[in-house]
Amino acid sequence: MEETIDILRSGEVPRQPLRITFKGQDFQVRILDDKLYKNLNEITILLDGIVQKLRKERDRWYFENTEDDMEFANDIGRAIALRYRL
User: Fold this and answer.
1) What counts of helices (H) and strands (E) characterise the chain?
2) Which tens digits make up the pLDDT trace of 12-70?
3) Which of 1, 30, 39, 69 could, after both became Cys, cross-link 46 (CB 3.0–4.6 A)?
């Protein structure tokens, strides 16, 4: 939680927000990593005010510390990959 507050307080949240609709609900995602490149397998994001880490394993995206919402994590990862051509 403090990590989220520090990032927001600094005012340096990079890139434009990416909006995701999942099961009829809208979410706002910002990428916190400085560099994006092809074959990236880990992305740190700010998801509706909470810092999350996405990991890619075998062409599927997952939240790092939980197996909940695997489809949601995969949709976010695919949207980021499409937007930034990863």
Assistant:
1) 2, 5
2) 545 678 888 899 999 999 888 878 888 888 999 998 888 999 999 988 999 988 777 89
3) 30
pTM for the model? 0.76
Nearest to 47 by CA among 68, 78, 19: 19
Type of residue found at 22: F
Q: How far apart are CA 57 and CA 41, in angstroms?
A: 7
Q: What's the CA gap between 59 and 61, in Å, rounded?
A: 7
Cβ atoms of 33 and 41 within 8 Å: the answer is no
Instruction: Using DSSP, state whether 35 is helix, strand or coil.
Output: coil
